[in-house]
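Anyone opening a protein record will find just a pair of labelled lines. With that in mind, the following record should read easily:
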Amino acid sequence: MAAVSSFLHSRGANIVTSDQHSTDPEGGRFFMRMVFTLHEPLAELAAAFERDVAGDLGGDWRIADAARPKRMAVLLSRDDHCLLDLLWRHRRGELFAEIPLVVSNHPDHAADVAAFRIDYEHVPVPAGGKPAAEARMLELLRGRVDVVVLARYMQILTGGFLDALAVPVINIHHSFLPAFAGADPYRRAFERGVKVIGATAHYVTEDLDAGPIIQQDVAHVSHRHGPDELMRLGRDIERTVLARAVIAHLEDRVLVDGTRTVVF
């Protein structure tokens, strides 16, 4: 903390916020996020930090320009509640991002997305057609976006696609992971007689619904709630959890620690 603060002071920067977390005594990893203003090109500051500070401290670091909106694409299938919530928040100025593209494996929502003046691409995924569909999505996305959000995109993305895309991918899963990973979680939750349902926003890895968790929330339910009612209640949780996770990522407040995250 002292080394970074002293460096920023020496460059005439003004620290606005500073957050820290340590995993000590388990693992002994230290995480820090600082927001600051400065009066020199960001590239010059980054070069000076690499030369004067980073080598002595070790570890991983990065500097992001908070004034530059990230480019965010959204993928979905038939359910539109998470997509429309994100687009509405974006129009209201709650999401500091550019959204150049929405991609779906169904044509259903083209008119809704056009109303927000955003391009819509239909990339079907027929049986046996996943390689071609992923190749087409790479053509549309690679180099154009900084993050991809799966707003109920009901297709499994392959490890090869994720590696080639090379940007973070955020998914919303309609259960309180690790419970009820995979398909049809509301039906399975009803059959199990749970008293709490939830939603989980996480980074996507090749392992199904097992990536580092960013945000979660729950709602209490009872024996009176059937599967359809659980789904209706769950959609509200999905919207808010996904929005919170996306905002945290766009603001560079999420640091990945193996299978976990630190969210400042």
Remarks:
- The chain has a mean pLDDT of 96.
